[in-house]
Design a protein that fits this description.
There is one protein chain. Strand 1 and strand 2 form a beta hairpin. The relative contact order is 0.07. It is rod-shaped and about 115 Å long. Strands 2-1-3 form a 3-stranded antiparallel sheet, with no helix packed on it. With about 180 residues, the protein is mainly alpha-helical.
Length: about 180
C-alpha cells in the first residue's frame, strides 16, 4: 500500500461526512405564503426541538438553540458534544458522529474491496476461452468418446449373438441355417 492511500481515504471520508452533514442541515426553502418557522429558542423540550434540522438541544443547559451551520461540530461554548442532541433525543452528538463515521467507513471500504476484487479478477483472467468453457468442452468430448466405445462394444456383442444363432446373412460358421429345398 502506498503511504498516500490512508490519507486520501481519510480526506474522502471526512469530505463525505461534511457533505452529508451540510446537505442534512440545509432546510428546503419555504413557500412565500407560509408563516416563518418559529425560532429554536421557542421550543421548551427536546422532543419538540430536534425534529427541526436547524435546531440543537443541549441537556447541559436544557435549552434549544440554532445549530451553527458554519461549523461541522457545535463549539463547546454552545454545548458539550456528549450533552448535545440533534435529529433524535436518545442519541447524543458524539454517538451520532461515531455511527455516521463507521457507516461511511464501512461503505467506503466495501467499495474499495469490490473495486480491488474486480481489478484482480480481470488481471488473472486468461485472454482466450474461459476455463469453464474448456472443461465443459473436454467433458463433452469424453462423454462422446465413451458413447462411441459403448456403441462399438454393443455392435460386436450383437454380431456375436447373430453369428451364434445364424442370423447373419453371409456366415460360414457351423450353426448356419439349413436351407429347405
Amino acid at each position: 500500500m502506498s503511504p498516500s492511500l490512508p490519507d486520501r481515504t481519510t480526506r474522502t471520508s471526512a469530505g463525505l461526512l461534511l457533505l452529508l452533514s451540510y446537505v442534512s442541515l440545509v432546510s428546503p426553502t419555504e413557500s412565500p405564503t407560509s408563516p416563518p418557522p418559529p425560532g429554536c429558542s421557542s421550543f421548551l423540550d427536546c422532543d419538540s426541538c430536534v425534529p427541526h434540522a436547524k435546531c440543537l438541544w443541549c441537556f447541559a443547559t436544557n435549552s434549544c438553540s440554532e445549530y451553527p451551520v458554519t461549523w461541522l461540530l457545535p463549539p463547546a461554548s454552545l454545548c458539550p458534544l456528549s450533552q448535545a442532541r440533534w435529529g433524535v433525543c436518545w442519541v447524543n452528538f458524539e454517538a451520532l458522529i461515531i455511527a455516521m463515521a463507521v457507516v461511511l467507513g464501512t461503505i467506503i471500504i466495501s467499495i474499495i474491496i469490490c473495486c480491488c476484487c474486480c481489478c484482480c479478477r480481470r488481471r488473472t483472467r486468461p485472454a482466450g476461452p474461459d476455463r469453464d468453457e474448456e472443461t465443459f468442452s473436454r467433458r463433452r468430448e469424453e462423454i462422446r468418446q465413451r458413447a462411441e466405445e459403448r456403441k462399438a462394444e454393443r455392435k460386436t456383442r450383437n454380431d456375436e449373438i447373430r453369428r451364434k444363432y445364424g442370423l447373419m446373412g453371409d456366415s460360414d460358421h457351423p450353426y448356419s441355417k439349413f436351407e429347405n429345398e
